[in-house]
């Protein structure tokens, strides 16, 4: 019986170590994806800030504050999910060519939950 327990322990310890390594790797990849989105600044002056943002599938842009009016043109559509500070979630289907006027609102994060890139051209009025 003791020999069986020793063999079992000898098999389980490496399995748990491998599982921990896989989980850590997946968490590091997820964290890298969240940090990988960098809006490309096309123009920034006293009146407007113009950026282009590309969300790859699974990418998330966190801590977006909206203290100014924005005009958004969808260069490439797809599906993203907004998560607000209060925990509320909202799914948005972006249509290529669509133009939107957005007024200031609460802070949120935005994650691409679709299977294609989402590309937005954003003009923020100052």
Features:
126 residues; alpha+beta; Jelly Rolls; 2 domains; 5-stranded antiparallel β-sheet; 4-stranded antiparallel β-sheet; 9 strands; elongated
Question: What is the CATH T-level topology of the largest domain?
Answer: Jelly Rolls
Task: Specify the structural class.
Answer: alpha+beta
The overall pLDDT average reads 84
Please state the overall shape, judged from the principal axes of the Cα atoms.
elongated
Which range does the strand content fall in?
over 45%
Q: What ranges have pLDDT less than 50 throughout 5 or more consecutive residues?
A: 28-35
* CATH homologous superfamily caption of the largest domain: Jelly Rolls
Question: How many beta-strand runs?
Answer: 9
- Supply the number of structural domains: 2
Radius of gyration over all CA atoms, rounded? 21 Å
The main sheet comes to: 5 strands, antiparallel
Kindly report how far apart the N and C termini lie: 75 Å
Structure description:
By secondary structure, the protein is an alpha+beta fold. The chain folds into two domains: 1-34; 36-125, Jelly Rolls (Sandwich). The chain is built from one helix and nine strands, in the order H-E-E-E-E-E-E-E-E-E. The chain has one helix at 2-35, and strands at residues 40-44, 48-55, 60-66, 70-76, 78-84, 89-94, 99-102, 105-112, 118-125. The longest helix has 34 residues, at 2-35. Mean pLDDT is 84; it is low at 28-35.
